[in-house]
Amino acid sequence: MLIQVERKIAAWMLRAAACALAVSMLAAAAASAETTPVGVWLHPNGRIQMEVFPCRDGLCAKLVWFKKPNDEDGRPRMDINNPDPNLRARPLLGLQVLHGLHPDGKGEWDDGQVYNPDDGDSYTVKMTIQKDGTLRVRAYVLASLFGKTIVWTRVR
Asked: pLDDT band for position 22 (50/70/90)?
């Protein structure tokens, strides 16, 4: 009888340890998902969403949603402000606007380039996940001091 009780206790302890391991693995996976900018983000103006994804040269991003995807004439929005006239007829929806972001080992991704279709210019960019889960995006020219920061909210 004592041996059966010991076996039941051992089996219960083994199940409890397996459950604790599974919970810790799920928590680690959730934490790592929250510490990466990979996902879909809403611009603070609420008009666009950008998807950040891994690509061959680090992290990239493309425009995946517009509140108003069509212009005043009902046609899809195009890259009309691009300095290259040959690229002005390309649609903005699905356009890759960011590339080359690399982790710096301190919770920040930097050395990327972002294209702003609103003005047709490209900027150096870096990103940081904030403690509240938002994404701080800093775009600048020459040095980070000469730039602008916007805060994006995770959609998924």
From this structure: very low
Query: Residue 5: what pLDDT?
Result: 45
Closest CA to 88 of 100, 75, 99, 72: 75
Which residue range forms the structural domain that includes residue 112? 37-154
Cα gap 97→119, rounded to integer Å: 13
Q: What H or E segment, with its residue span, contains residue 3?
A: helix 2-34
Residues 58 and 98 in one domain: yes
pLDDT at 16 over 90: no
Please check whether residue 62 is in contact with residue 94, taking contact to mean a CB–CB distance below 8 angstroms. yes
Would you list the DSSP string of 33-76?
HHTS--EEEE-TTSSEEEEEEEETTEEEEEEEEESS-B-TTSPB
User: Within 10 A of 19 (CB to CB), how many other CB atoms are there?
Assistant: 10
- Which amino acid is residue 38, in one-letter code? V
Q: Helix, strand or coil for residue 104?
A: coil
